Amino acid sequence: MPDVIQERAGVSVLVCDPAGPPVATEQDALDLIGAAFLGAQVVAVPVSRLDASFFSLGTRFAGEIMQKFVNYRVRLVVVGDISRHLTDSSALRALVHESNRSDHVWFVPDLDALDTRLAVQGT
Q1: pLDDT for residue 122
Q2: Four-CA torsion 73, 123, 15, 39, nearest 10 degrees
Q3: Global model pTM greater than 0.90
């Protein structure tokens, strides 16, 4: 399945294909943001698309990517199981906890959880 824009819980979401190209650079993130400008308010990126450095906070890659989405006012949602990464890093656990309390970046286990979150919070 290619990346597609879907209406989910009344919100336009760019749902990224798990088998699509990896997000390994800032330019990759900007490409997703550009695709979102075709009509999506949210970009749902599967964990499988994110380079491992995203989950190693010392690389600063996650912060750079998240900041790009915030700057362009596009919500980033990381979709999938990140439990093994959380086990390895208390800093990542704190980041996920704080992110999920905000409106800009969310970490959810699956698209059903995203739908629920969107229905409760809206855009």
Answers
A1: 55
A2: -60
A3: yes
